[in-house]
Design brief:
Blueprint (H helix, E strand, L loop, with lengths): L1 E11 L7 E3 L4 E3 L9 E4 L9 E4 L6 E9 L3 E9 L6 E6 L19 E4 L11 E5 L10 E3 L6 E8 L4 E6 L2 E2 L3 E2 L6 E7 L7 E12 L3 H5 L2 E3 L6 E5 L4 E8 L4 E5 L7 E3 L7 E8 L2 E8 L1
Antiparallel strand pairs: 1-17, 2-4, 3-6, 4-5, 5-17, 6-16, 7-12, 7-17, 8-9, 8-16, 9-10, 10-11, 12-13, 13-14, 13-15, 18-19, 19-22, 20-21, 20-23, 23-24
Length: 292
């Protein structure tokens, strides 16, 4: 699935903001008010132009990129990130935000785990490696990714709000789709100074509605019954090339290459729970949440 920036909700390159803390526009803070939690506009590094947004090691900064409390549809966020050698970075995805863009009830609604680059609070953290951590001091990440230190690299997240799924690509490597952890609402992205080692710059942000290059073909891709007992039926108008099924930990547990229209998947041997189905048809991918 491709993001077309012509359908952008907004873009942000920090060039029009004065240097220093910034609160306004698409930027708020955990508390929802201006202050030390806000993003810092910096000229130390920039992907394009002369400025970027900065989250340092104060352990106080807690800036939120406000995405509008979306309750339906599919959206993409892309941005460039820069983490100097040996330093760390952090963000998570929030559900419903308050009217002033702050965290609900002051504690937040976490739709993702802690997504950390070089987690110095975990024994498994290492420079050049990031990971998903339910708790920042967990010994092992649920899954990991690599990133280049001291260089700008792209991050893209696709949010399918209707299916309560998000899929993240870091430096060209796409992770398995993940379920929203709390609710079917896309509120914002929380960039937090989780440790004194934190030093993360972001730039060239684009928030877009996503459109498929073959919208009609994907419109007629459905899975039923859902919840399923034994056999999951796929309804499609084109040949389904491949199907991968993931558990909620992001582990691939089934691979199927039907090469046929409207195939059937035997799920009778699988345990009850939530699964993520990713199918490829007519060269395009479709992701669904399946309950057994």
């Amino acid at each position: 699935m491709t993001i077309f920036t012509a359908n952008a909700q907004f873009s942000d390159d920090f060039e029009s903001y004065p240097l220093g803390t910034y609160h306004g526009g698409n930027w708020s803070s955990w508390g929802g008010t201006p202050g030390a939690e806000d993003i810092i506009v910096s000229d130390a590094f920039a992907f394009d132009g002369t400025k970027s947004g900065f989250i340092g090691g104060s352990t106080v900064q807690d800036a939120i990129l406000v995405l509008g409390n979306k309750t339906t549809g599919s959206y993409g966020v892309s941005f460039q990130a820069y983490i100097p050698a040996g330093k760390s970075g952090y963000f998570n995805f929030q559900g419903t935000l308050t009217a002033n863009g702050g965290a609900t009830a002051g504690t937040g609604i976490f739709n993702s785990p802690n997504l950390i680059f070089n987690n110095v609070m975990s024994p498994s953290g290492t420079p050049g490696t990031g990971g998903s951590y339910p708790n920042v001091d967990d010994e092992v990440a649920t899954y990991t990714w690599s990133y280049p230190e001291g260089a700008w690299f792209p991050i893209e997240i696709i949010f399918d709000v209707d299916a309560a799924l998000w899929t993240m690509t870091i430096d060209g490597n796409t992770m398995a789709p993940q379920l929203f952890d709390a609710e079917n609402v896309l509120g914002g992205i929380d960039f937090f100074s989780f440790d004194t080692n934190n030093e993360m710059y972001i730039d060239a942000i684009v928030f877009s509605e996503t459109l498929s290059v073959d919208e009609e073909a994907l419109t007629y891709f459905k899975a039923y019954p859902n919840p399923v007992d034994d056999y999951l039926h796929i309804a499609s108008k084109t040949v389904v090339d491949s199907i991968n099924l993931f558990n909620i930990m992001g582990q691939k547990i089934l691979t199927f290459t039907p090469q046929s229209v409207s195939p059937i998947i035997d799920m009778s041997a699988l345990a009850s729970g939530a699964y993520i189905l990713k199918a490829v048809t007519n060269g395009q991918s479709k992701t669904l949440r399946i309950i057994k």
